[in-house]
């Protein structure tokens, strides 16, 4: 019955980030710049890690996948967002909306769990350095990565399953620049407390569990760093974590602000600004943060560029 009701909505209209005409073109060029930097930064980091064998260790294995996820989910959302700045009416088909939403959920959940896997990697490296090569063996890294993408599939399927039990009425205008669960539920004529509860539970699993894992990992890491006798040793240990801490703070901070609050307490326009942060700004900053703050990446980048120049 629900499937029949939802199929009567052939398309949605995306309101976009703002309805002020004078801001459309400046915002188009701003986010086009963000997207270009995101593409170049993440593809560049993927290339550098792939071409330099000394970076083929667990830390950069996870960073490689983080860059792939950032590249993918930015591509899932940003091009459609850019179209919305130049068209008077930004239309997306029902199938297109559901497809965008599915991949958005998949990559956001995957990013949450890849960040927690990276925190676990730092925990093992700092707290159990003598057991690092055994604990973080290629097989273990493969299992962790399978879990990362497995949770991505879980998040996408759970949210999509939740949408199958709602029907959409006459209004098909989504007050957002993308298809997301909260604005879609606002359009439904039969969504209930249960639907919102499912959203909260699924998002808690997607954001809450990785945050707890990261906090526990860094609790042990901080304890180990404080037991290092030399100031230089403490500084070196902490410097290996700073890039990850910055990325985690940006991603989970904006995500929690958007989803881990009752919908009534957060106006959707403010939610859109928060969404911009973790869908457009964070994927752009991640490769910059890791490139600028990581000596190994900078050395590998110089080698790669000099190799191409010599060729």
UniProtKB/TrEMBL annotation:
PROSITE patterns the UniProt entry points to: G_PROTEIN_RECEP_F1_1 (PS00237), G_PROTEIN_RECEP_F1_2 (PS50262)
A matching Pfam family: 7tm_4
GO terms, molecular function: G protein-coupled receptor activity; olfactory receptor activity
All residue ranges annotated as the G-protein coupled receptors family 1 profile domain in the record: 41-290
Any one GO cellular component localisation term in the record: plasma membrane
Compartments in which it is found: Cell membrane
Bilayer-crossing regions: 27-48, 60-79, 91-109, 130-158, 193-226, 238-260, 275-292
InterPro entries, per database record: GPCR_Rhodpsn, GPCR_Rhodpsn_7TM, Olfact_rcpt
Membrane topology, record value: Multi-pass membrane protein
Membrane found in the keyword field: yes
PANTHER family found in the cross-reference section: OLFACTORY RECEPTOR (PTHR48018)
Family: Belongs to the G-protein coupled receptor 1 family.
Entry protein name: Olfactory receptor
Organism encoding this protein: Mus caroli (Ryukyu mouse)
Lineage start: Eukaryota, Metazoa, Chordata, Craniata, Vertebrata
